[in-house]
Design a protein that fits this description.
11 strands; binds nicotinamide-adenine-dinucleotide; Rossmann fold; 3-stranded antiparallel β-sheet; oxidoreductase; L-malate dehydrogenase (NAD+) activity; tricarboxylic acid cycle; alpha/beta; 9 helices; 2 domains; 6-stranded parallel β-sheet; Lactate_DH/Glyco_Ohase_4_C; binds (2S)-2-hydroxybutanedioic acid; EC 1.1.1.37; 288 residues
Length: 288
Amino acid sequence: MTSLAVLGVGRIGGECAFAASALGIVDELILADVYEPLLRAQVLDLSHAPLDIPITTDRSRIREADICIFAAGSPRNPSVKTRADLFDANLPVAEACMKHLNGFSGTLIVVSNPMDVFTYYFQKKLQIPRERCIGFGGQLDSRRFEVALRNRRMDGDGWVIGEHGEHQIPLFSKIGIPVPDAERDAILTELRGASMAVIQGKGGTAFGPALHITDLIRMLTGEKDATITCSLSLEGEYGFSGCAMGVPARISRGGAEVIGDWELDQWEEKHLHEAGGFLQSLCRRLDV
Ligand SMILES: NC(=O)c1ccc[n+]([C@@H]2O[C@H](COP(=O)([O-])OP(=O)(O)OC[C@H]3O[C@@H](n4cnc5c(N)ncnc54)[C@H](O)[C@@H]3O)[C@@H](O)[C@H]2O)c1
Ligand SMILES: O=C(O)C[C@H](O)C(=O)O
């Protein structure tokens, strides 16, 4: 039995609730949103699907959930340049959602942006083990990197670490062929704009993140073990603490275990240094 709570059932939260139920990987949904008409509509729409899944909107049940997705708060629109620009808009939302999570002992998947910042915020505020407070974004960024490589007829595993945002770092050293710095920079620029192209065309990203998140849920329920990149509070790994950041991690039923010994090349080290400094400065603004 796996119960999934979703805090914020807008575009991505709603899509995750639907995908996880349709794929049969959760047995109960606990849905919450401040906008009651949307919440009612999502429950109704799901109940009209040929799915046999109990759905509750009783917020007091969130803290009992096995897995909770935090997807509440504002998304970007074309005039919001970076995910970090959502900090001021979404911090009060995270603060408001804290009350539903007091005593939570499951695994929190943080989706709302700036995702790395809220991963750190919830892990520290809730004092849950860092293995059980996982920021989602690395799987999506890594996939986008693979697509960019494929479009250039370069095959290889696309690993992306760092911030889920402008300071993301595609790991060119892991694809097995040398890529000159100028081409790395061009690909990085393309990756920074990858989701904005979706936001401009359809208002927000949904299919990509939702299916990666269901995959993460499968790992957390023990259906499969895998190595992915995700955001975790760091305790000195890669030279950083005082922030959460995308790093390689082994995911299993126990949660996410940081893999701290991946070797990076000079270009990657330089970008990682900038990413860590940037996230540390954002996290210092939190009252944790
Ligand atoms: N990490 C990722 O890869 C990723 C992918 C997609 C979206 N996002 C982020 O997820 C967040 C949500 O995006 P979206 O497109 O679903 O936006 P959305 O506007 O469609 O949905 C957000 C929902 O949050 C609800 N909400 C606001 N305050 C709340 C509160 N205090 N309690 C409960 N619900 C509350 C709103 O009513 C709304 O329904 C954004 O910050 C977006 O940037 C991250
Ligand atoms: O880019 C965004 O604002 C949404 C999300 O973080 C994404 O990467 O799809």
